[in-house]
From TrEMBL:
Gene3D superfamilies: Chloramphenicol acetyltransferase-like domain (3.30.559.10). It comes from the Eukaryota. Pfam families: Transferase. Residues 1-20 are annotated as: Disordered. One of its GO terms (molecular function) is acyltransferase activity, transferring groups other than amino-acyl groups. Keywords: Acyltransferase, Transferase. This is Uncharacterized protein. The lineage of its organism: Eukaryota, Viridiplantae, Streptophyta, Embryophyta, Tracheophyta. InterPro entries: CAT-like_dom_sf, Plant_metabolite_acyltrans.
């Protein structure tokens, strides 16, 4: 693979806006989306598609400002905070790959080692961490993928979907409709956290971290490359989801049970994963 990487350094905190956060060491969110193209020559991609992706990304990031900032946890601060500066940038890496696009983007079993190169690295140190990194991988005459890695401290489960929808809309139409629900929800007062609970959560960090002495840091365990791990796509239709909700309501003793699509999907995928794990053990 050849890489063309553009990245900016974090500016000084003097001109920064700071936003305290109430969570500590959480996992990273990684996502890869594939886009098949009927015509994707090297010239057309790098002269037309790539510039359009970069321009639309720059425009839409103004509505997701925290994503271009970084996390900071100073020694004197009881908890980390988000720092947003006017000159902040997001790391964007452009990669060309000769991998089989049809296979790697299919719903068949795929080795994790084949998907891992499509996800960028996130710059993280003990007291500072980037929030978002993006990688565009071009597959000549096949298509391209967009891989993102984001710190879970800033982005919840719903925001990535809004992220992709907003970027795709701007890339296609060149503007943002007024009725488009873009802004990230930053108001943490909507979650009622007792005043005494938050300090106690941070006191648990030494027990949750391998670094018992210096547990107050943003470093995360390195991703382990395992040649025996495979990925598979599980597809649930609207009818499947409806059936799962009805099944859960029939099994519940609550008459007014309300279930979101995420809850029933997570339950189904977790159960399927456990089943596959047990079946794999039997074959060993």
């Amino acid at each position: 693979m050849t890489k063309d990487e553009s990245n900016g350094d974090n500016p000084d905190d003097g001109d920064a806006a700071k936003e305290n956060i109430t969570v500590g060491r959480l996992a990273l969110q990684e996502r890869v989306t594939f886009y098949k193209l009927t015509e994707s020559s090297r010239d057309s991609f790098f002269s037309s598609i790539q510039p359009k992706l970069e321009q639309s990304l720059s425009l839409f990031l103004s509505h997701f400002l925290p994503l271009s900032g970084y996390l900071k946890w100073n020694p004197q601060d009881p908890k980390p905070h988000i720092v947003i500066c006017p000159k902040d940038t997001v790391s964007l890496t452009v990669v060309e790959s000769d991998a089989d696009f049809s296979y790697i983007s299919s719903k068949e079993l795929c080795l994790e080692t084949e998907l891992r190169p499509l996800v960028p690295e996130l710059q993280v140190s003990s007291d500072s961490a980037s929030i978002l990194s993006i990688q565009i991988t071009f597959f000549p005459n096949q298509g391209f993928s967009i891989g993102t890695i984001v710190h879970h401290v800033v982005m919840d489960g719903k925001t990535p979907s809004k992220f992709y929808k907003a970027w795709a809309h701007i890339c296609k139409h060149g503007n943002i409709p007024q009725d488009f629900d873009l802004p990230m929800v930053l108001d943490r007062t909507i979650i009622n956290v007792p005043a005494r609970l938050e300090p106690k959560l941070f006191q648990l960090l030494p027990y949750l971290s391998k670094e018992k002495v210096n547990a107050r840091n943003l470093m995360l365990p390195p991703a382990k490359e395992n040649i025996n791990v495979v990925w598979v796509t599980l597809e649930l239709s609207e009818a499947n989801i409806k059936k799962l909700k009805e099944q859960a309501k029939n099994e519940s003793t609550w008459s007014d049970l309300l279930l979101s699509t995420f809850v029933v999907t997570y339950k189904k995928s977790s159960g399927q994963s456990l089943f596959c794990k047990e079946e794999a053990k039997k074959s060993l």
